[in-house]
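FW: tagging you since you asked about this chain on Friday. Here's the raw sequence from the shared folder, copied in full. Didn't touch anything.
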Amino acid sequence: MFLSRWWLEKTGNDRTSGIVLEENFLGPVRWATLLASLLPAYPLMVAVAIGVLVRLTLASAFGVVFVIFLALLGQLQASAGRLLVYGSGYGCALWVVNFLGVAALLFPRFTTVNQFWIGFVAHTFFYGTALGACVARACATIPMVATR
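HL: got it, structure written out here
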């Protein structure tokens, strides 16, 4: 409510204030687009490039942490199915920590959006399961790890 009223006072445009209070999973995307339009000093493609770079860096760092956990637990030689399950669990845990923990404390706006598809499903299956598949493939092809 506060952001919508603030936007309405600043711009006098009631149609765009509805974007601020969008309550579906596209709300954050629309909010980011709205913010990008407010900052003309940054071209859209620069913002997209920086966003992709940050996302890939974080995904890579969290992937390295996953492999370190597997190595510490002695599970790098686990079966491919087990690594898929571990990866899915890791993706779900990452979602819980990031969105239900950190984001809820730092960005309470995220808690008002339905996070099932863009949060749980994306982190658990599109990141976690894919990460588990990549680790299983790498462990099967690296000679030191492939000795089972």
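FW: The two ends are 58 Å apart (CA to CA).
HL: agreed, and Residues 9 and 31 are 17 Å apart (CA to CA).
FW: great, closing this out.
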